[in-house]
Amino acid sequence: MGKVLSFFISFLLITVISQAEEKSVKNAIIFQKLIDIDKRLTILEAQFRDFKEETNIRSDHFIQLLWIITGIFTTLTVFVIGFVYWNIRFFQNTLKEIICLV
What we know:
mainly alpha
């Protein structure tokens, strides 16, 4: 009975020691993975920062294009309204002259 008990105790100690070593190995592996994740996160943040700068530049160009289109539309609108006003005044005066001559 004493031999069986000592066998189980030694088996239990060996199991506990091996599990402790496995945990330390697992912790080291986990720590290394966390370091790798941190490096990847740093790279990802740098890429995101570059993407954000590119997007800002593109949006600035797009807004500038919209201002150009707005200016062209405004100029054409003012020109057409002015032309219509001038045309009405011109034909009213011409019509008055024709009516006076008749």
